[in-house]
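pls read this stuff:
=====
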Amino acid sequence: MIDQSAIIQLGNPKLRQKAAWVENIQDEKIKTLIDDLIATVDQANGVGIAAPQVAESLRLFIVASRPNARYPDAPEMNPTAMINPQIISHSSEVVKGWEGCLSVPGIRGLVPRYQTITVEYMDRNGNLQTQELTGFVARIFQHEYDHLEGMVFLDRVESTEELMTEAEYQQRIVNQT
């Protein structure tokens, strides 16, 4: 597991780099990184984490939706490593939803994302996977994909009025439902 303090924060220039293609999926370093990212996202109460967030500029992220303190209504799924992911197609429907980020602690933003996306990626065994993702899981994928492109969710917020602190979010949004 990667110590939570190893998650780099907004302002670190590595968060703004475009990540490199993973050339050798079977490399032990990649397998260890996947396992470490899965353990770290769990420990940090996240629903996804990208390799660039731990200063590894590689096109690899974990989607790990599950209910937790930060996302109590998240759907349950097994943590999934997505290597060299791509968005193949997307719906025309765009929905705004609240997002936070382990690299931008204490802030939430209302972010527009495609409601449905079709994606391709290599799994941890090197097999090509194609999936259609919708709703919250599609949002996680797009959020983590942005990290591979050197972006954070703040880059997509349309107005600073659509930002709030984590404490305000927990009080106004989570405790209101």
User: Anything to note?
Assistant: The chain has one domain: 4-174. The domain at 4-174 is CATH 3.90.45.10 (Peptide Deformylase). Helices lie at 28-43, 135-148, 166-174.
